[in-house]
Amino acid sequence: MKRTQLSLFPVVLLVLGYTPIAALAQTQQVKGVKPGVLYAIPLNKEGTYCHLRFPAIRGRSFGSAKPELKPPTTKDIIDFYGPCDYDPLGKEEVQRQSEVWAERQLQD
Q1: Is the pLDDT of residue 73 over 60?
Q2: What CA–CA distance (Å, rounded) separates 81 from 83?
Q3: Poorest-confidence range of 34-38, 55-59, 98-102?
């Protein structure tokens, strides 16, 4: 009996782990999401206000004409609540992250 319970446990974990992924895949697609956004969930009926997740901007690219996002594997991810068409490489986000980056450099 104990052996059966132990062998079913990984199956149950697999099913429970897959369920949230399947639910996210079935959510409505958000229009106007900019490149680089990893995750976009609309928070109103109109689909204009979203929860977005996107990688942070590379520190060395703040002064350049074309800032770059870090790879998603770095786990330096920004949680953002606002317009669904928010640009993670737009002027406003570059300014915000460069200020945070400069503060961190002063603290070190």
Answers
A1: yes
A2: 7
A3: 98-102
